[in-house]
Amino acid sequence: MTRPIHVSASNIHGLGASQLVQSLLPALAAVGRDRLGTIFVPESGPLAGLAADLGLSAAKIARRLPNAASRVVECLSTSRYYPVDGNMLVLGDLPLAIPGKQVLLVHRLHMVSGADTGSASGNAKVAVSRWLFRRNAKYIHRAIVQSDIVGNELRDNFPGLDGRISVIPQPAPRWLSVAARKQWGEWNGERPLRLFYPASAYPHKNHALLNRYTSDFGAREDVHIVVTLDPEGADQPGMLMPIGVQGEEGMRDQYHRADALLFPSLAESYGLPLVEAMTLGLPIVVADLPYARSLCGDTAIYFDPMDSGALDQAITELKQRLSAGWQPDYTARLALIPRDWNDVAERMIALFDLP
């Protein structure tokens, strides 16, 4: 008899991670409902009712400790949270101490590489996470990463996982599939160029470059950079336009209004906004780093993410291309990514059938 596949998503709270689960769980139900066991979800938030709404068996996990502390307890004493028998798909980076086959989705690059996060508290969390990962790595049947870059980092830092790492890239989230496509290249210089950068205020997201850029080139009135940062306390409207965190409708609207995606991030385990932009056919101006090259190939406009002058040159190049009617063709790049979330779900379930 095939053992059921339970899903651990109870520690998922961030916007990006929640959107991943909101795309993945319906796909798992669509292609593998008969194999799914209990779906463990947070007590509150956007995922709390998702499994039940899909007609799946669900259990809400109440976390009374701060999230970081509860993750430690969860990894050291897993049976307190998951008193079940069977296999487990874990969507939270850290392996659990459970019997059966465990397939783990790993997407936190700093945890994998141990790189400096830019803060003492962040580095402390990474150190604890890496200790927990190493302690429970023996329970991992297969580890899923979204790119070869993270796969290589994971193999280098945890060599015991060699041969047990599977790369499954992530398509655009389901909510984006209903976004109306528009014909890009509509910008002709008669209005300010509108660039969109959806990212939280982590140091590696490199908003510092945008601050330097506005300081160096802020007198220009022909560029607007829209960022998903808290607008409270922001300066008077100018080149940099913080609009706060956006939900699905807000993201669709911002993508539709943008002339290009701007992405200066210094480190990414994948780079989902790049996939979102490619799915929509939106031009991309991005940091010249391996994560971006691996996704975009030669279809994007690249710049040195430490140099505001290089960013200005890239924006100037974008203007010239758009004025000439440029529309990037991402067909070949998107062909390297699973066609949809059902494809992703099928690949994940298949890992449990491997010896």
Can you give a write-up of this model?
With 355 residues, this protein is an alpha/beta fold. The protein has two domains: 5-171 and 338-351, Rossmann fold (3-Layer(aba) Sandwich); 177-334, Glycogen Phosphorylase B (Rossmann fold, 3-Layer(aba) Sandwich). 37% of the residues lie in helices and 16% in strands. The chain contains 13 helices and 13 strands. The chain has helices at 15-32, 50-53, 67-76, 109-113, 120-136, 148-157, 207-217, 248-257, 272-280, 290-296, 308-323, 331-334, 341-351; strands at 5-8, 36-42, 57-61, 87-90, 102-105, 140-145, 165-167, 193-197, 223-227, 240-242, 260-263, 284-287, 301-303. The strands form two sheets. It has a seven-stranded parallel β-sheet. A six-stranded parallel β-sheet has the order 10-9-8-11-12-13, sandwiched between helices. β2, α2 and β3 form a beta-alpha-beta unit. α7 (207-217) crosses α11. The longest helix has 18 residues, at 15-32. The protein is globular and about 65 Å long. The two termini are 16 Å apart. The relative contact order is 0.12. The model has no long low-confidence stretch (mean pLDDT 90).
What's the alpha carbon Rg, rounded to whole Å? 21 Å
Can you tell me the CATH architecture of the largest domain? 3-Layer(aba) Sandwich
Largest sheet: 7 strands, parallel
Largest sheet, spatial ordering of strands: 3-2-1-4-5-6-7
Order of SSEs, N→C? Answer: EHEHEHEEHHEHEEHEEHEHEHEHHH
Number of domains: 2
Low-confidence region ranges? none
**3D shape:** globular
- Count of runs of 4 or more consecutive helical residues: 13
Mean pLDDT: 90
The number of strands is 13
Distance between the termini: 16 Å
Fraction in beta strands: 15-25%
Helical content class: 25-40%
Structural class: alpha/beta
| CATH superfamily placement of the largest domain | Glycogen Phosphorylase B
